[in-house]
Design a protein that fits this description.
The complex is a heterodimer of chains A (about 110) and B (about 110). Chain A has strands spanning about 5, 10-15, 20-25, 30-35, 45-50, 55, 65-70, 75-80, 90-95, 105, 110. Chain A is mostly beta strands. The termini of chain A are far apart. Chain B is mainly beta and about 110 residues long. Helix content of chain B is about 0%, strand content about 55%. Chain B has strands spanning about 5, 10-15, 20-25, 30-40, 45-50, 55-60, 60-65, 70-75, 85-90, 95, 100-105. In chain B, the strands form two sheets. In chain B, strands 2, 4, 5, 9, 10 and 11 form a six-stranded mixed sheet that branches. In chain B, strands 1-3-8-7-6 form a five-stranded antiparallel sheet, with no helix packed on it. The radius of gyration of chain B is 13 Å and the shape is globular. At the A-B interface, strand 5 and strand 10 of A face strand 4, strand 5 and strand 10 of B.
Chain lengths: ~110, ~110
């Protein structure tokens, strides 16, 4: 069984530029999560999807961050415009339901210059 | 919301010794407590979990204990090996993580 796939693995951009991250969850997993992981910290939830519906996005900075999960499968997280403080690893995870084990992708390391 | 505290932030042990990492949580309604291992350049990987109706769970060299009254749970690794070196995270309420413990096992 393929794991959670994320791309790109690394991204370097200048501040004020837009950036997008893509996630393909494990087949059959209805719940999808985006987390932010700063250096030396644990993952912090940005948004959770149940199928195509965003059900927990209270920690998502909506002035610059947006996310979508079309057809309840793949998901895209976008930042526009990026700021220096957005440099971090962005992790995607999926689970069969929200009460089941989460499986994480390898993450996208974003560097904003 | 849930607040999870994890200690220690770093832990260094000799190969063969035991390692213990502790977490406390604030929300008494939390009922699921997973532990993850994260290696460099990879996402966290579940190594063991425990639900609130159980006080202890063991899987080979790894065990987790839960004290719901005191709202704390611990990860125990026995007979540590160099490949156990990684960052370990606890979590509560499925989506609230501790800050992590960097475990180093010296050969």
């Amino acid at each position: 069984e393929a794991g959670v796939v994320q791309s790109p693995r690394y991204k370097i951009i200048e501040k004020k530029q837009p950036v997008a991250f893509w996630c393909n969850p494990i087949s059959g997993h209805n719940t999808l999560y985006w987390y932010l992981q700063n250096l030396g910290q644990g993952p912090e939830l940005l948004i959770r999807y149940e199928n195509e519906e965003a059900v927990d996005d209270s920690q998502l900075p909506k002035d610059r961050f947006s996310a979508e999960r079309l057809k309840g499968v793949d998901s895209t997280l976008k930042i526009q415009p990026a700021e220096l403080g957005d440099s971090a690893v962005y992790l995607c995870a999926s689970s069969r339901t929200r009460m089941d084990t989460q499986y994480f992708g390898p993450g996208t390391r974003l560097t904003v210059l | 919301g849930e607040n999870v505290e994890q200690h220690p932030s770093t832990l260094s042990v000799q190969e063969g010794d035991s390692a213990v990492i502790k977490c406390t949580y604030s929300d008494s309604a939390s009922n699921y407590f997973p532990w993850y291992k994260q290696e460099l350049g990879k996402g966290p990987q579940l190594i063991i979990d425990i639900r609130s109706n159980v006080g202890e769970k063991k899987d080979q060299r790894i065990a987790v204990t839960l004290n719901k009254t005191a709202k704390h749970f611990s990860l125990h690794i026995t007979e540590t090996q160099p490949e156990d070196s990684a960052v370990y995270f606890c979590a509560a309420s499925y989506m609230r993580f501790g800050a992590g413990t960097r475990l180093t096992v010296k050969p």
